């Protein structure tokens, strides 16, 4: 369970309502498959396990939970997908990305174009060209 304590920090509680770890976060999301997104004091986000340990130690401007092995992540260049080690799957960056379904994801370019990409970041189908 995710809670916010009296000092304003977010943390997770165990089933017996004890703190799961000592750290407090600017924000903490719910666990999904044993991994949660947390935000540090500098506003960047990473993944932790149920004991509060960093999963990969990489920090992003924005981050989502893992879905089918990949997470949506945003760095200074834009959105992408990362694997469980926090490594980007591809070098391209987008204005928006959706999770992968059946190995494909819908993305939007910074200029408004939309396409479907595969897990390597390669274009599968153009949905809306300029």
Describe the structure.
This protein is an all-beta fold and 130 residues long. The chain has 2 domains: 2-49, no CATH class; 62-128, Thrombin, subunit H (Beta Barrel). The protein has no helices and 12 strands. The chain has strands spanning 2-4, 10-12, 27-28, 35-39, 45-49, 62-67, 70-75, 78-82, 96-97, 104-108, 114-118, 123-128. The strands form 4 sheets. A 4-stranded antiparallel β-sheet has the order 9-10-11-12, with no helix packed on it. A 3-stranded antiparallel β-sheet has the order 3-4-5, with no helix packed on it. A hairpin with a 6-residue loop joins β3 (27-28) and β4 (35-39). The chain is elongated, with a radius of gyration of 16 Å. The termini are far apart. The model has no long low-confidence stretch (mean pLDDT 96).
Q: Indicate the overall shape.
A: elongated
Quickly count the domains. 2
What's the gyration radius in Å?
16 Å
CATH architecture term of the largest domain: Beta Barrel
Helix-strand layout with pairing:
Elements: E1 2-4, E2 10-12, E3 27-28, E4 35-39, E5 45-49, E6 62-67, E7 70-75, E8 78-82, E9 96-97, E10 104-108, E11 114-118, E12 123-128
Antiparallel strand pairs: 1-2, 3-4, 4-5, 6-7, 7-8, 9-10, 10-11, 11-12
What's a concise summary of this model?
It comes from Nannocystis punicea. The protein is an all-beta fold and 130 residues long.
What characteristics describe this protein?
2 domains, 130 residues, mainly beta, 41% strand, three-stranded antiparallel β-sheet, elongated
């Amino acid at each position: 369970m995710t809670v916010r304590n009296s000092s304003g920090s977010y943390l997770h509680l165990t089933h017996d309502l004890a703190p799961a770890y000592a750290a407090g976060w600017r924000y903490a999301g719910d666990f999904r498959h044993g991994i949660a997104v947390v935000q540090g004091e500098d506003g960047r986000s990473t993944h932790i396990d149920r004991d509060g340990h960093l999963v990969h130690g990489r920090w992003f401007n924005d981050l989502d939970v893992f879905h089918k092995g990949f997470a949506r992540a945003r760095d200074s260049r834009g959105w992408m997908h990362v694997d469980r080690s926090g490594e980007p799957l591809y070098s391209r960056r987008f204005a928006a990305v959706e999770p992968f379904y059946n190995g494909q994801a819908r993305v939007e370019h910074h200029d408004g174009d939309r396409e479907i990409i595969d897990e390597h970041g390669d274009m599968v189908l153009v949905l809306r060209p300029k």
